Recover the amino acids of this structure.
């Protein structure tokens, strides 16, 4: 039950943050923190993932934050913070699967935009909607 609630919370968090990312190109720290607290409250009722697995999931987000700092903000810190929160709920491998699927989807869309000259190399696209669609895809098509 707690796993289902956790996934609903992650989905709602990704939906809210996707809307923010598309509209403002910024994520609200408060929304991310509230999502983290609610997912954290589900942890005592969930035994499917170990604490180490959840910490590994958080490390995925921390690595993205590090990449953001190294690239001067080419990748948003908010994306990394959001991946930290999803890592709490999904664990290391679940968060890696989410991140890899989102990267692949964003790469396909970016290539499409470049090939058809709808954007240039300097155009930024919001990443959180790709996280949302990847999360939904993983829910619908688990471990193909």
């Amino acid at each position: 039950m707690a796993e289902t609630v956790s996934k609903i919370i992650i989905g709602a968090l990704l939906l809210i943050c996707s809307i923010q990312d598309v509209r403002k190109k910024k994520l609200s720290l408060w929304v991310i923190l509230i999502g983290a607290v609610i997912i954290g409250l589900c942890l005592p009722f969930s035994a499917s993932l170990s604490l180490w697995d959840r910490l590994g999931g958080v490390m995925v987000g921390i690595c993205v934050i590090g990449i953001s700092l190294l690239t001067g903000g080419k990748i948003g810190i908010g994306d990394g913070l959001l991946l930290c929160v999803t890592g709490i709920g999904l664990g290391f491998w679940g968060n890696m699967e989410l991140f890899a699927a989102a990267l692949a989807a964003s790469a396909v869309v970016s290539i499409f935009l470049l090939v058809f000259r709808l954007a240039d190399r300097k155009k930024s696209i919001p990443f959180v909607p790709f996280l949302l669609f990847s999360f939904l895809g993983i829910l619908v098509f688990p471990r193909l």
